[in-house]
Amino acid sequence: MLVDLALGLFSGYQTAQNNSENTIAAYQTDLVQFFDFAARELGKSIEETVVDEIDLYIVRTFMGKLTNDGLNRKSIARKVAALRTFFKFLCREGILVQNPVLKVASLKTGCKLPEFLYVEQINRLLVVSDCTTLLGCRNQVILELLYGSGLRVGELVNLNREDLILDICLIKVKGKGGKERVIPLTKYASEAIQAYLALRSDNLPALLLNYQGSRLSVRSVRRIIDKLVAKANLDQHVHPHMLRHSYATHLLNGGADLRSVQELLGHERLSSTQVYTHLTKERLREVYIQAHPRSKEKQPAEKNNIQKSM
Fold first, then answer.
1. Is residue 309 assigned to a domain?
2. What amino acid positions are annotated as catalytic residues?
3. Containing structural domain, residue 227
4. 266 with 175: CB under 8 angstroms?
5. Using CA atoms, how far apart are residues 239 and 38, in angstroms rounded to an integer?
6. 278 in a domain, yes or no?
7. pLDDT above 60 (res 274)
């Protein structure tokens, strides 16, 4: 089967699985990059290449090129995962007999802990919006929902007025794969939303609008966050997802159980939520070192005091 046809079938399969447009586009980008490389290795154009011609050697050569080009292990692992999913699909559909990625070992990328803000930093950020203006009120809503409800930025910009249940402080969110969850709103978020909507003179369905009256984009949210962070004089780069990380970290630090946080975040796998336990464990260690008289960091001082008293 020609590569173009196989890619089309795979894209249709992903759409049927309710994968997001961003996910489908990311897979297609990685796969086209691979097949462009494979076609050159085979001395053909990508339009002439058939998936049956791909073998283990080409896959490993592609990985070697990515390494030589200076791509980090995490990015290479992501591209290999895309190939693995694609060829597994072709084998399952009977289009291929052998999976050329089957014997490719998974790359160990290590565990990068998510970045988060401390409560004091969050508090500084939450007071910089000018809530006497329409856009200032909107910006406050953005912060309150990203941090107060832990929304993904894509979930945030897709919210509609009909998703709000303000009388009981709940909100309906459509997450990855089109899965819907209902999560709590803080009273601060509810009040910010009501103040923002009170200043709106339109009946448009989108909750968040730009200054032109169109639905706010993900890119615009990033720019807004950058401006608010600069206004709060925070000395680190803050991206929207960092507020979601902060939400999860602060919940766990406050005593929330892992399963509840998983449900609130909309994680399909518990392992996706468990990464935040590394952060809370580090926080517990800090508390222990500062508070317990027998912590290792305090023992040398204790010994010196004992020796002096002798």
1. no
2. 152, 176, 241, 244, 267, 276
3. 119-289
4. yes
5. 36
6. yes
7. yes
